[in-house]
Amino acid sequence: MGTCPSFPNLSAKLFITMPMQSVLKPDDTFEMLIDQTVVSKGSLLEDMVPPVNPPREIEDPSEKKPDDWDERPKIPDPNAVKPDDWESGALGKYRTQTILKIFTRSR
């Protein structure tokens, strides 16, 4: 008779027919029970592979910015030109009036 790879001390037949239960707790810990006996327990964040909640970004100590990296928040485009019909106001006169009409009608 074979054994279960996760629990080598249990025979495969017993493992299949025994009641199993997973208990997840609010403190991010878990318990695995077979036939109401705890066979495994630990933290969901530290003891699971892969982790249930992996880090947002994996730190790479060898990572660095290139020497010619530009730190400016906006980089001007020398080829950019405004369209001929560009409105100098934030929304333009027509758009501002239209938005005001919409907001006054909804009240």
TrEMBL record:
Keywords: Chaperone, Endoplasmic reticulum. Residues 44-89 are annotated as: Disordered. One of its GO terms (cellular component) is endoplasmic reticulum membrane. One of its GO terms (biological process) is ERAD pathway. InterPro entries: Calret/calnex, Calret/calnex_CS, Calreticulin/calnexin_P_dom_sf. One of its GO terms (molecular function) is calcium ion binding. PROSITE patterns: CALRETICULIN_REPEAT (PS00805). Residues 56-75 have a biased composition (Basic and acidic residues). Belongs to the calreticulin family. PANTHER family: CALMEGIN (PTHR11073:SF7), CALRETICULIN AND CALNEXIN (PTHR11073). This is Calmegin isoform x1. It comes from Limosa lapponica baueri. The lineage of its organism: Eukaryota, Metazoa, Chordata, Craniata, Vertebrata.
